Amino acid sequence: MKDLFGKAILDYQLGNYTEDIKTETSISEEDDLPLPYLFRAYDEMPAIEKKAMDLSKGRVLDVGCGAGSHSLYLQNEKHLEVMAIDVSEGAVKASELRGLKNVRLQDVMKLEGEQFDTILLLMNGAGMCGRLNRISTFLNKLKNLLKKDGQILMDSSDIVYMFDQDGDGGYWIPTDMDYYGEVDYYVRYKGEEEPPIDWLYIDYNTLQNAAQANGFNCELVQEGKHYDYLAKLTIA
């Protein structure tokens, strides 16, 4: 991987901001992801993210921390113990430069020997699972990292709205798709492109069913303005 996300985040942190990240999926056209948005303060966060910040407690694991905005708020404003992890070397470096005390270059699926009161997976954190058939493995790994009375706070979106509807209100889902929320995700930055990665947008009912099948209670905490939602998972 070229770590284009990390390069872009580090460019912004170092004052070399000249253009935004471009993203595209197998079912959507190219779109700009403004770099300043990744450096947002609490007041600039969507309501779902603010709610996740408000609910965070105890020892926190921020999975896929990016530029570290959520972790910095929890560390500096709520004075919580936070471990932030990301697979992007550039993102980790930028987060360190911003003052994050405990940030690691780490794949959550390979993290061992730690337990947390709160695990955060924000900015469609459920997407890291990649494909729906991996959700049980993903959730069970998170369970192993969670204290008995801990919580997982994750957000995602139901992207069924992106498909055409018929006259009865049903959606036309291509028959070659295992699940309509599975997409190939492309990132471009400064003339370079990453190989596509597997990404998952999971609707709440599907997440709830998967959570319950893997020993979790699942609660719909808040719905956003554009088919997005925040869910809380606790060990049943």
TrEMBL record:
<dbReference type="GO" id="GO:0032259">
    <property type="term" value="P:methylation"/>
</dbReference>
<feature type="domain" description="Methyltransferase">
    <location>
        <begin position="56"/>
        <end position="159"/>
    </location>
</feature>
<protein>
    <submittedName>
        <fullName>Type 11 methyltransferase</fullName>
    </submittedName>
</protein>
<dbReference type="GO" id="GO:0008168">
    <property type="term" value="F:methyltransferase activity"/>
</dbReference>
<dbReference type="InterPro" id="IPR025714">
    <property type="entry name" value="Methyltranfer_dom"/>
</dbReference>
<dbReference type="InterPro" id="IPR029063">
    <property type="entry name" value="SAM-dependent_MTases_sf"/>
</dbReference>
<dbReference type="Pfam" id="PF13847">
    <property type="entry name" value="Methyltransf_31"/>
</dbReference>
<keyword id="KW-0489">Methyltransferase</keyword>
<keyword id="KW-0808">Transferase</keyword>
